[in-house]
Amino acid sequence: MKRTGKYGLLLLLLLATGLAWGQTFNPKAHGVIRSERADGRFYSSRGVVHAMLKNNVPKYAFNPGFTPGEFKKWQQELRTAMGRLMKHPQLSNLPAPQLLSTVRRDGYRVEKWEAYPLPECVTSFLVLIPDGVTEANPAPGILCIPGSGESKETQAGEPELSPKFGSGDTGAEAERWVVAVPYVKKDLVAVVVDNPGAGEASDLERYTTAPDYNYEAVARYLLELDWSYLGYSSYIDMHVLNWMKRQPVIRNDRLIVCGFSLGTEPLMVMGVLDPDIYAFVYNDFLCRTLERMIVLTEPDENGRRPFPNSIRHLIPGFLKNFDFPDIVASLAPRPVICPEGGLDRDLDLVRKAYAIAGKPENITIYHYAKFADRARGNYERLPEGLNRDLYFELTNVDPPRHDVKMNVVLPWLDEVLK
Amino acid sequence: MKRTGKYGLLLLLLLATGLAWGQTFNPKAHGVIRSERADGRFYSSRGVVHAMLKNNVPKYAFNPGFTPGEFKKWQQELRTAMGRLMKHPQLSNLPAPQLLSTVRRDGYRVEKWEAYPLPECVTSFLVLIPDGVTEANPAPGILCIPGSGESKETQAGEPELSPKFGSGDTGAEAERWVVAVPYVKKDLVAVVVDNPGAGEASDLERYTTAPDYNYEAVARYLLELDWSYLGYSSYIDMHVLNWMKRQPVIRNDRLIVCGFSLGTEPLMVMGVLDPDIYAFVYNDFLCRTLERMIVLTEPDENGRRPFPNSIRHLIPGFLKNFDFPDIVASLAPRPVICPEGGLDRDLDLVRKAYAIAGKPENITIYHYAKFADRARGNYERLPEGLNRDLYFELTNVDPPRHDVKMNVVLPWLDEVLK
After folding, report:
1. Chain B from 183 to 242: CB within 8 A of any A CB
2. Fewest Cβ atoms nearer than 10 Å: which of A352, B119, B336, B415?
3. Which residues pair with A260 in a beta bridge?
4. Which residues of B touch A317 (CB under 8 A)?
């Protein structure tokens, strides 16, 4: 049990009555975590774990000195390690997905399907099929995975299942989140899923806080059961991807995965585990999550240092194996577009992997407009003691413009499908 | 990245301006998680994980039908599984702990030591030694592990290292938290540690929120590194316990561990891993944490169902192996006192283990005063849809009286050390 309730109340009271608390504590003075001892050890457990993070060397880090042969061997090892971390259950005799309904749209139809990837679970997805695409004339297929706070209906441009599920944007601003319709207009079959805990897969948020979803509750219970949010989401998404492979209207030699924000994580997992995927839309900035944890240490006025993200991103042991740039590097030589850049240091690593794999032209990178037209920051190593805003600034990220970059993705698509 | 910031703000605004939000959502109506489908499957991911929790059967659950031989075999298997989960590093050539200072008190002395259990870590502990205890006249040793929000100095009755580290109580109320002094007055050598992230092991809380500590930050980074708060705390505590074994003033055939609240968790781990420990003071109520997660589902006015505790209690995969009553049962036949009761259902399970192990007299149980003198609730299975208050009521817990029960522990101690 907790014995801190009364202190929480006391704290609130102190803050509320305006006592001069914060004035004696200067967050900026404590940004960097330093040992005060000659031997470098920490009394503070936060200091200890910070040092442990800094000493951590991911086992399957990409090495830009790889020969093509070493690269392939490493790729296979990374795949095995990813499979071990994701813990996808091996279930047989699962029921086949069922078609629930079909609606006509201008130039395409939208089918709603449901699938049964786990004994306890039913999950639904939308399939947008262009007119003219048939078994005799199959099309490339693209699996679209939404970002945080998004429903599959938002990405598909379909009516929301609950008034609260929408983005809250209207008109041209709302169009910014629609991904599947531009793809279907390019004659692809677009499939859109919900992330676990969001949209139709949410709990009570439709009555209350949606589109602010409690992903963390789902994540916490999964972690208790030795799984993880990403292990679960990538398993569900893989189940749908495998269904796509069996659809005669979809060319299974032209399967693409498009992940936005939160959706880039299952994209990476599927990309590593499934060599059949043809190309990837990685719609977020690329970063080193281990470094982000190490440098994001400026406390708030209560002395709390931020954690970069919530436990829906926690995969125990992930960082002992690899980091995001390693994973994207391992997708080479399959085409990938990164429309929201990051640090050139990390992007160059991915570029190097594509060069080693013999297809340097298969990695396409754009930066946020704010960082495209001027000298971007580049760092071999970011300084410690950052806050969130400064971290984004230094890594060339423009948070208000974090959205779907169809303007660069669609021309890229024309190229990779030529 | 998150796209929910603006919605959070919107929510705050709505709440602040008093719009009639909550009135349309009735939390009580959504307490129990139910599938709306004939096949029992859930669209809601929260529903899916809830069903997965209900289907979870811990591998090393205690079976009251064990023969004495089966019990011993199971005990050994549980020990192996616990070792696997706790991931204690096997380090050699660690520096020996150092004595930092000694102060005289009435009838005993207090030594402050520091130890070096990890290359990045220094941890300090207090040793209270009664006058008259010498190498020629060694005494039993008791390791005291504080609860949440407590420093080792609080439990030792010593001056706090920072004004904010104290309990905030004064006089007789402050005495409630002092554990080590009553033990030393009974002629035991009492050793007191800090929990990771608390007291001297805290980060910036001494300037701000202490004794409200950010244990969760420490826990999160450890989880990222494939460890856990409990794995870490039990490792540190075990390091100190092993030091105790080498002290000539301590009888290492009479080592006792006393855990209060949060401190009962490392107590359980050490008890399982180390058969040399002689007896245990388990100062919290005993409960089934898996069941607690299953039944604690009544949402708040925002539709958020509670999670029983924070991620400092998260050990990935723990629940697939065992639950608290199984672990306490596995301590048989070594003496244990549970001064804050719980459900008779769970306590009877532990009693049964002690009977199988041939020492039914070695389990001592008291209930909260509120539940001692009247018919207590007892349930084979708790109903779902509870809130926290109701959960405590049904499990015979009186939260305001959750404290150190020296009144029953000290007479028990006389018995077990007779």
Report:
1. 196-197, 200-205, 207-209, 211-214, 217-218, 220-226, 232
2. B415
3. A283
4. 225-226
Of B222, B211, B204, B210, which is closest to residue A31 (Cα–Cα)?
B204
Kindly state whether B123 is in contact with chain A, defined as any CB-CB distance less than 8 angstroms. yes
Torsion over CA: A280, A283, A285, A291 (sign): negative
* Antiparallel, parallel or unpaired: β A336-338 and A139-145: unpaired
Residues contacting residue A326 through CB under 8 Å, at least 6 positions apart: A58, A60, A61, A62, A78, A349
- State the DSSP H helix or E strand holding residue A131, giving kind and residue range, or none if neither: none
The CA-atom distances, in angstroms, between B211 and each of A267, B145, B267, B405 are 42, 16, 22, 21
Instruction: Kindly state the tokens that stand for B120.
Output: 């990045």
Handedness of CA B45, B51, B57, B62 (dihedral sign): positive
**Percentage of residues of chain A with pLDDT beyond 70:** 94
Q: Return the H-helix or E-strand segment holding A112.
A: strand A108-118
Structure pTM? 0.94
CB A189 within 8 A of CB A130: yes
CA distance to A213, A305, A413, B138, per residue, from A225 (Å): 21, 28, 40, 45
- Which pLDDT does position B47 carry in this prediction? 98
Token readout for B271 is 């008890």
Decide: helix, strand or coil at residue A286.
Answer: strand
With beta carbons less than 8 A apart as the criterion, state whether A330 and A323 touch. no
Cα dihedral B217, B221, B222, B223, rounded to 10, equals 100
Residues of B in contact with A304 (CB under 8 A): 204, 209, 214, 217
Cβ burial of B331 (10 Å; 0-12, 13-18, 19+) is buried
**B133-148 average pLDDT score:** 98
CA distance A313 to A318: 10
**Contact with chain A for residue B95, Cβ under 8 A:** no
CB neighbours of residue B258 within 10 Å: 30
Q: Concatenate the DSSP letters of all residues of B97-108 into one string.
A: PEEEEEEEETTE
Angstrom CA distances, B254 to A74, B189, B409, B418, stand at 53, 11, 16, 11
Which of these, A309, A308, A378, A390, lies nearest to A349 by C-alpha position?
A: A378
- The helix/strand/coil state of B212 is coil
Query: A203-230 in b/e burial notation, b at 16+ Cβ within 10 A?
Result: bbbbbbbbbbbbbbbbbbbbbbbbbbbb
The confidence score (pLDDT) of residue B4 equals 40
Backbone angles phi, psi at A149, to 5 degrees: 80, 5
- Low-confidence stretches of chain A (pLDDT beneath 50): 1-22
CA distance A232 to A87: 8
